[in-house]
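[09:14] KT: can someone run the structure on this one? pasting the chain below
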Amino acid sequence: MPRVVPPPDIGLDEFFMRWLPGVVSADPERRKQLAETVATLVFDVHGEGGGLYHLRIAAGVITGFAGEPAAADLRVRVDLASWRALNAGTLSAPEAFLRRRVQLSGNLFLAD
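[09:31] RB: done, C-alpha coordinates below
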Protein backbone atom coordinates (compact mmCIF):
# COMPACT_ATOMS: atom_id res chain seq x y z
CA MET A 1 0.00 0.00 0.00
CA PRO A 2 1.51 3.35 -0.98
CA ARG A 3 2.61 5.60 1.84
CA VAL A 4 0.63 8.82 2.17
CA VAL A 5 2.68 11.77 3.39
CA PRO A 6 1.00 14.62 5.28
CA PRO A 7 1.91 18.24 4.55
CA PRO A 8 5.24 19.05 6.24
CA ASP A 9 3.79 21.89 8.34
CA ILE A 10 0.62 20.09 9.45
CA GLY A 11 -0.42 20.78 13.02
CA LEU A 12 -1.04 18.01 15.52
CA ASP A 13 -4.77 18.77 15.85
CA GLU A 14 -5.20 18.70 12.08
CA PHE A 15 -3.17 15.50 11.69
CA PHE A 16 -4.77 13.40 14.42
CA MET A 17 -8.35 14.66 14.30
CA ARG A 18 -8.88 15.30 10.58
CA TRP A 19 -6.06 14.35 8.19
CA LEU A 20 -5.33 10.76 9.29
CA PRO A 21 -9.00 9.78 9.79
CA GLY A 22 -9.72 11.31 6.38
CA VAL A 23 -6.94 9.34 4.66
CA VAL A 24 -8.28 6.08 6.04
CA SER A 25 -11.94 6.86 5.31
CA ALA A 26 -11.10 7.73 1.68
CA ASP A 27 -9.19 4.48 1.06
CA PRO A 28 -11.22 1.23 0.89
CA GLU A 29 -8.03 -0.88 1.08
CA ARG A 30 -6.91 0.80 4.32
CA ARG A 31 -10.40 0.41 5.80
CA LYS A 32 -10.39 -3.28 4.86
CA GLN A 33 -6.94 -3.75 6.42
CA LEU A 34 -8.20 -2.25 9.70
CA ALA A 35 -11.63 -3.93 9.64
CA GLU A 36 -10.84 -6.44 12.41
CA THR A 37 -8.82 -4.03 14.57
CA VAL A 38 -10.35 -2.58 17.72
CA ALA A 39 -7.81 -0.51 19.62
CA THR A 40 -6.95 2.81 21.20
CA LEU A 41 -3.54 4.30 20.48
CA VAL A 42 -2.11 7.20 22.48
CA PHE A 43 0.44 9.58 20.99
CA ASP A 44 2.41 11.73 23.43
CA VAL A 45 4.23 14.18 21.17
CA HIS A 46 6.48 16.05 23.55
CA GLY A 47 8.49 19.23 23.34
CA GLU A 48 7.51 22.73 22.34
CA GLY A 49 4.37 22.55 20.20
CA GLY A 50 3.62 18.97 21.25
CA GLY A 51 0.47 17.51 22.68
CA LEU A 52 -1.37 14.38 23.75
CA TYR A 53 -3.74 12.67 21.29
CA HIS A 54 -5.41 9.34 20.89
CA LEU A 55 -6.83 7.40 17.99
CA ARG A 56 -9.72 4.98 18.29
CA ILE A 57 -9.74 2.25 15.63
CA ALA A 58 -12.90 0.17 15.15
CA ALA A 59 -14.60 -1.43 12.13
CA GLY A 60 -12.13 0.10 9.68
CA VAL A 61 -12.67 3.64 10.96
CA ILE A 62 -10.16 5.84 12.75
CA THR A 63 -11.40 8.64 14.99
CA GLY A 64 -8.96 11.11 16.51
CA PHE A 65 -9.21 12.95 19.82
CA ALA A 66 -7.12 15.37 21.85
CA GLY A 67 -6.21 14.28 25.36
CA GLU A 68 -5.93 11.09 27.35
CA PRO A 69 -8.36 8.19 26.80
CA ALA A 70 -9.84 6.10 29.61
CA ALA A 71 -7.67 3.14 28.51
CA ALA A 72 -5.04 2.55 25.83
CA ASP A 73 -3.77 -0.51 23.98
CA LEU A 74 -0.57 1.16 22.75
CA ARG A 75 1.29 4.27 23.85
CA VAL A 76 3.72 6.08 21.59
CA ARG A 77 6.00 8.76 23.04
CA VAL A 78 7.95 10.83 20.51
CA ASP A 79 9.43 14.31 20.29
CA LEU A 80 7.92 16.71 17.76
CA ALA A 81 11.00 16.79 15.48
CA SER A 82 11.11 12.99 15.28
CA TRP A 83 7.34 12.85 14.67
CA ARG A 84 7.76 15.23 11.73
CA ALA A 85 10.73 13.21 10.37
CA LEU A 86 8.73 9.97 10.63
CA ASN A 87 5.80 11.55 8.76
CA ALA A 88 8.12 12.93 6.07
CA GLY A 89 9.80 9.56 5.61
CA THR A 90 13.26 10.92 6.46
CA LEU A 91 13.37 8.77 9.62
CA SER A 92 12.27 5.14 9.61
CA ALA A 93 10.28 3.70 12.49
CA PRO A 94 12.90 1.00 13.26
CA GLU A 95 15.68 3.61 13.30
CA ALA A 96 13.64 5.92 15.54
CA PHE A 97 12.97 3.05 17.94
CA LEU A 98 16.62 1.89 18.00
CA ARG A 99 17.84 5.45 18.60
CA ARG A 100 15.27 5.81 21.39
CA ARG A 101 13.58 8.71 19.66
CA VAL A 102 10.31 6.78 19.97
CA GLN A 103 9.21 4.85 23.03
CA LEU A 104 6.44 2.27 22.80
CA SER A 105 4.47 0.55 25.55
CA GLY A 106 1.51 -1.78 25.40
CA ASN A 107 0.53 -4.04 22.53
CA LEU A 108 3.54 -3.68 20.22
CA PHE A 109 1.75 -5.59 17.43
CA LEU A 110 -0.33 -2.45 16.92
CA ALA A 111 2.81 -0.45 16.10
CA ASP A 112 3.18 -2.23 12.75
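[09:33] KT: thanks! The longest strand covers residues 39-46.
[09:34] RB: yep, looked fine to me
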